[in-house]
Design brief:
14% strand; seven-stranded mixed beta sheet; binds flavin-adenine dinucleotide; 19 strands; 606 residues
Length: 606
């Protein structure tokens, strides 16, 4: 039957189905989440279940750099600063150790979804090659710990410590950084590496507080309750019924281990993910033998070129991203093609890719009714795609049930979620409900007030949209670097590590340049900031016509793509022009004149 069930479904019928499925999910209040900073009942769900908190005296210290966040971005920035001879570096993190995302996300089955040989940073520097094509969270965390060790970043780090305020002190020419443990740090340079998916999200569902069973978010897995560990069987679940809420990237990874361990798993699905082939496998020895110096950068660049639709001799990564995501976002274009033809070609590719995904569901899921519900009906570019080898098969197991609830729960009762009037009784609710989107402004993701010159906060300055130079520095916030990220006038890369590595190179290169020139303080010139912001706004592509037809997701602003602010766009069109951006940053460093910055040689008075 080919694409099974789709015989006779021409593009118009599919488009109509997409809209009908979207409408089922466009429910008022659907995107409401709890504000965990103030939520009385659930604030504790962010506590660290992995490392006991050590009592310590407050620290009062003068340092060269404070880096907020010990994830990939913070670690690589700190490592590159070390390479430039910067000595006094303090990483501050709410976590009990380094790793960021990979410290917090220890749920069973967690792994990267971009190939590990390009996702794990600094592989060549550490002489390491991941064991698998897609590494487990445990392996990624161990690698990040090894980076911290190699660059001596742990001894001075402050863990289980939240920055609550940072203020530029004009007289000292230093940042004054205060924490929730009473620390007072003064730093010449301040680096925000606070994460892109660091704010875990809990939906605001009526009755959640009344649930009498146990619950937690996937980013705070409670092995004390489930038993076992990331790679060990969860023995305490054998007599328990688990409700899994959410079928995005975390939900699909966690299902199989849960199904292996629990008496029963009930999966509550609002929108099915498009789940492509993962094709994970151990690293073949011949791949390791072939590696030559510069291989990781070359592989990252190759992947990025494919993602941008450029011609490459060989697709080195050769996976679902390069087969599906790249052509759908950058369809092949011939010179004679009109823009309308190009757009149409993109849609045709998209239709074909989604049909393949639905066919995959049919091939793998035995029960036709369950398969129907698992089929994704929206354009491929509407949601970040998922890839997995065991997720769909898990629905063939007798102990796994799928509950379709496109409009969400009626409420959560004492015994469990209520859908269409029926209460599903569970012992444990696992919220695989993800994170606030990376487009959440950095002043919110940072979780603290950043005060620049004249008492202006970053939230006030960026309240109506970002204003920056390169998406990294902003006027009136001297000596501040914000690691480049989506939504702040930089670029977006599918492989986030590539952007973090470039950001680190830029931060360390700039500090080195300024030091060599005897510059104590820099600020961004008003004209340079206005120019950069204008470039961003001028290249903004309003995709709301296409994106409004999408099923609501974080990519289309939960059904409101029209609210996207052009000032929070990227350098270049669409997701941005990575190679031009990198050339520009590297050219700026090589030129050495610090164009666009106002430089001060004022010596600090400390
Ligand atoms: C399960 C999962 C899988 C992922 N897989 C991929 C993948 O395959 N490919 C990809 O490109 N991306 C992936 N991502 C996205 C991932 O977040 C990034 O790749 C990357 O790890 C982010 O690194 P970071 O250093 O910017 O931020 P994070 O790793 O989030 O680190 C930021 C740190 O800052 C700390 N922090 C924030 N505010 C404060 C404060 N006020 N005081 C003290 N500390 C603070 C946080 O505690 C956190 O530890 C994944 C995300 C998740 C959740």
């Amino acid at each position: 039957m080919g694409a099974g069930g789709e015989v006779g479904h021409g593009p118009d019928a599919v488009r109509a189905r997409y809209l009908a499925e979207r409408d089922k999910r466009l429910v008022p209040g659907r995107a409401d989440i709890r504000d965990l900073a103030t939520d009385e009942h659930f604030a504790g769900c962010r506590d660290d279940p992995f490392t006991p908190r050590q009592e310590r005296a407050p620290v009062d210290d003068d340092v060269d750099v404070v880096v907020v966040g010990g994830g990939i971005a913070g670690l690589v920035a700190a490592a590159r600063l070390r390479e430039k001879g910067v000595e006094r570096i303090r990483i501050v993190d709410q976590a009990g150790g380094v790793g960021g995302t990979w410290y917090w996300n220890r749920y069973p089955g967690v792994m990267c979804d971009v190939e590990s040989y390009i996702y794990l940073p600094m592989l060549e520097e550490l002489g390491y090659v991941p064991r698998d094509r897609y590494a487990s969270g445990g392996e990624i965390l161990a690698h990040l710990e090894a980076i911290a060790e190699r660059y001596d970043l742990v001894a001075d780090a402050l863990f289980h410590t939240g920055v609550v305020r940072a203020e530029w002190d004009e007289d000292l020419a230093r940042w004054r950084v205060s924490t929730d443990r009473g620390d007072e740090l003064r730093a010449q340079w301040y680096v925000l590496a606070v994460g892109i998916l660091n704010l875990l999200k809990l939906p605001a569902v009526a009755g959640m507080e009344d649930f009498a069973g146990h619950s937690f978010h996937t980013a705070r897995w409670d092995y004390g309750y489930t038993g076992g560990g990331p790679d060990e069987p969860m023995t305490e679940l054998r007599d328990r019924v688990v409700g899994l809420v959410g079928t995005g990237a975390s939900g699909i990874q966690v299902l199989k281990p849960l199904a292996d361990a629990a008496r029963e798993v009930i999966v509550f699905q609002r929108t099915p993910s498009a789940v492509g082939v993962r094709g994970n496998r151990p690293t073949p020895p011949e791949l390791v033998d072939q590696l030559r110096p510069g291989w990781q950068q070359e592989r990252m660049d190759n992947f990025q070129a494919v993602m941008l639709g450029r011609d490459v001799e060989e697709d080195l990564v050769d996976d679902g991203w390069t087969h599906h995501y790249a052509p759908v976002h950058h369809p092949p274009r011939t010179e004679s093609m009109s823009i309308q033809d190009y757009v149409r070609a993109g849609e045709e590719l998209d239709l074909r890719v989604m049909k393949e995904h639905r066919r995959r569901v049919e091939e793998l899921v035995e029960d036709p009714a369950t398969a129907e519900v698992l089929k994704p009906w929206y354009r491929y570019l509407c949601k970040r795609p998922c890839f997995h080898d065991d997720y769909l098969d898990a629905f063939n197991r007798a102990n796994v049930t799928l509950v379709d609830c496109p409009a969400g729960f009626d409420r959560i009762g004492e015994k469990g979620p209520v859908v269409d009037g029926r209460e599903y009784e569970v012992d444990l609710l696992v919220y695989g409900t993800g994170f606030e989107p990376e487009l959440t402004p950095v002043f919110r993701r940072a979780g603290h007030v950043v005060v620049g010159r004249g008492g202006v906060t970053l939230a006030e300055k960026w309240g109506d949209g970002a204003a920056s130079l390169f998406g990294i520095m902003t006027r009136d916030f001297p000596n501040l670097f914000i690691m480049p990220a989506p939504g702040q006038q930089a670029v977006v890369t599918v492989n986030y590590t590539q952007l973090a590595v470039l950001g680190a190179e830029f931060v360390a290169g700039t500090v080195d340049l300024l030091r060599r020139r005897g510059v104590e303080v820099f600020d961004v010139g008003a004209e340079a900031e206005a120019d950069w912001t204008r470039r961003i706004v001028d290249s903004f592509v309003d995709g709301s016509a296409v994106m409004s037809a999408c099923t609501p997701s974080r990519i289309n602003n939960e059904g409101h793509p029209e609210l996207m602010n052009p000032r929070n766009g990227n350098f270049g069109r669409g997701l941005g022009d990575w190679f031009a951006y990198r050339d520009l940053l590297r050219g700026w460093l090589a030129d050495g004149t610090c164009e666009g910055l106002e430089l001060g040689a004022r010596a600090a008075t400390t």
